[in-house]
Write a structure and sequence with these properties.
Length: 552
């Protein structure tokens, strides 16, 4: 359900029209088969799946109302939106809010003044997102000059889809390997339907198509190519780039790209857009992983589809963040005020289930969401002692330049890191282990590319930079849902002293916490000072990562 209201805004003496876009999701269960293989209880909105994409124009105010008809809380996260001055609308459960209780409703206010591009919305409570509660969010540009670069705008959403509801299995993930719960691996949905039934995209000779590709995945990676055509990358995760020509996109869970594809001048052939769903750390099983799908690109209804010889991945020029430059010419952030090194560690428990951590402790939720701790503990909010160790809380000073060095020493496992509240500059990547033949990559230009989601490849580190100019509590986590649920996350507590002066949490959110049994004042345990009585001790993750040398 969508409605629009005009607002009149004044800026710099000029009158501008903004639209208040009102979208209502009546969130509930529905039995559905989306991939043609199995029917099960999924989570949708307004009685339907897929949920229609949301379109707004930069400067609009999106009011997204969630009416919760589930038997558990629900939250919504606008993936990639900074939520400046409104961290409480960011969505991660028990971090910036307690959730919307069953039978209640809440409206998220999403400002788009400073952002445009390609995003998505999904639940951030347990496994509700992977069970269906997700859709694309497109913020159309106010800058009319960008429209001169293409003739048509095409959205391509890519989803993973299980063979049963993961939400009902979430507690079993701590005792049963995921492969035993869903032995057939996820299938693929393209634009919300079975990938084997993908609807054609029609091309007109000579026209330029902006293809917005959204990986709405919580598990594996996607590769996208259109043989016979080149792609000109112009956007990654809502950040516009200087145009760069590539053959294809290699996308981790949560990433988005916009590319310009110029149609052929001839109607002689049709073509196939190749979509590969894969994971480097899963053994290949014929027909299951990787999965190969094709989206018809139709120039003429009765034309044959042109075939191309198979080529190896290393022969493909994939989009590369380290070779891209941002279009807005934001210079490299320097000098660095705070350098943070986090090693990914893994602990396999006695039943073979991995727990992960950025550092020494597996992330776990606590009674008081850290946003409320930051807002109610006065000067103590600047001390790590009021945040339970399992929050992996890192306190940032206002406007400091922060460099995050994330290190993955595992030689097999790959992760997808998503940063809430910021788009980070991509500065450097290289091998963790010194005896590796993997080459280092360093940004060598003047305006490094930024984005909010990036692959943490096996045996590699990345260095990323942000400016702590967005006071709030920001969740940082692996976007492979099982990894995040198993502890691979940390929190940035950004300028809590500024938060206390400028942020006011909506009273509805305070009341929701009361209904759900969560305190909203004090340290992580709802107590004073560093007294964490009542909280389970954190799960310590030990491993060889402690002995990995700092490569600075």
């Amino acid at each position: 359900m969508l409605a629009c209201t005009l607002l009149i805004l004044f800026a710099g003496g000029l009158q501008a029209l903004a639209v208040r876009v009102q979208v209502t999701w009546d969130i509930g269960y529905l039995n559905i088969s989306r991939d043609g293989l199995s029917t099960w209880r999924a989570i949708g909105a307004n009685g339907q799946l897929p949920i229609p994409p949301i379109y707004v124009t930069q400067g609009d105010v999106l009011e997204l109302t969630a009416i919760n008809h589930l038997d558990m809380p629900v939250t919504l996260h606008a993936h990639g939106l900074f939520q400046r001055n409104s961290t409480y609308y960011d969505g991660p459960a028990l971090i910036t809010e307690c959730g919307i209780p069953p039978g209640s409703q809440f409206t998220y206010i999403i400002e788009t003044r400073d952002q445009s591009g390609t995003y998505w919305v999904h639940s951030h409570y347990r496994m509700e997102g992977i069970d269906g509660l997700r859709t694309a969010l497109v913020i159309l540009d106010q800058d009319m000059s960008l429209l001169d670069e293409y003739d048509e705008d095409v959205l391509l959403t890519l989803e993973d889809w299980g063979q049963g509801p993961l939400e009902s299995m979430v507690d079993m993930l701590k005792t049963t390997p995921l492969v035993n719960l869903i032995p057939n691996h996820p299938t693929v949905l393209i634009n919300g339907i079975n990938a084997n039934l993908s609807q054609p995209i029609r091309f007109t000779p000579g026209r330029r198509y902006r293809l917005r590709v959204v990986s709405m995945s919580f598990t594996y990676w996607f590769k996208v190519r259109l043989p016979g055509h080149t792609m000109q990358v112009i956007e990654a995760d809502g950040i516009y780039s200087q145009p760069s020509t590539v053959d294809g996109l290699d996308m981790c869970p949560g990433q988005r790209y916009s590319v310009i594809i110029t149609a052929k001048e001839s109607l002689e052939f049709n073509y196939a857009l190749n979509v590969t769903f894969y994971s480097d750390y899963i053994p290949q099983i014929l027909g299951l992983t990787p999965r190969y799908h094709h989206v018809p690109i139709v120039y003429r209804k009765d034309a044959p589809t042109k075939t191309f010889p198979l080529i190896e991945d290393h022969e493909v020029k994939w989009a590369d963040e380290y070779a891209m430059e941002s279009r807005d010419k934001q210079m490299l952030l320097e000098p660095v005020d705070q350098h943070i090194v986090l090693n990914i560690k893994t602990l396999i428990n006695k039943v073979g289930i991995p727990n992960y951590a950025f550092g020494d402790y597996a992330y776990n939720n606590v009674p008081v969401p850290p946003l409320f701790t930051a807002l109610t503990t006065g000067d103590m909010a600047l001390s790590p002692s009021v945040y339970a160790p399992q929050l992996n809380a890192i306190i940032l000073k206002h406007n400091h330049i922060v460099e995050l060095e994330l290190r993955n020493p595992d030689t097999v496992m790959v992760h997808s890191y998503h940063c809430h509240g910021h788009a980070f500059q991509i500065v450097e990547s290289g091998p963790v282990h010194k005896n590796s033949s993997i080459p280092a990559k360093r940004f060598r230009g003047r305006q490094p590319m930024r984005r909010d989601t990036i692959t943490l490849a096996a045996n590699r580190y990345v260095r990323l930079r942000i400016k702590a100019d967005n006071p709030g509590v920001w969740f940082q986590h692996c976007h492979q849902e099982q990894h995040s649920y198993s502890g691979l996350a940390f929190t940035l507590i950004e300028a809590p002293d500024v938060m206390q002066r400028t942020l006011r949490v909506p009273q509805e959110m305070i009341e929701f916490c009361r209904i759900l049994g969560h305190p909203t004042r004090g340290n992580s345990a709802g107590r004073a000072g560093s007294d964490m009585t009542g909280i389970k001790p954190p799960l310590a993750i030990t491993g060889t990562a402690n002995s990995i040398p700092d490569t600075r």
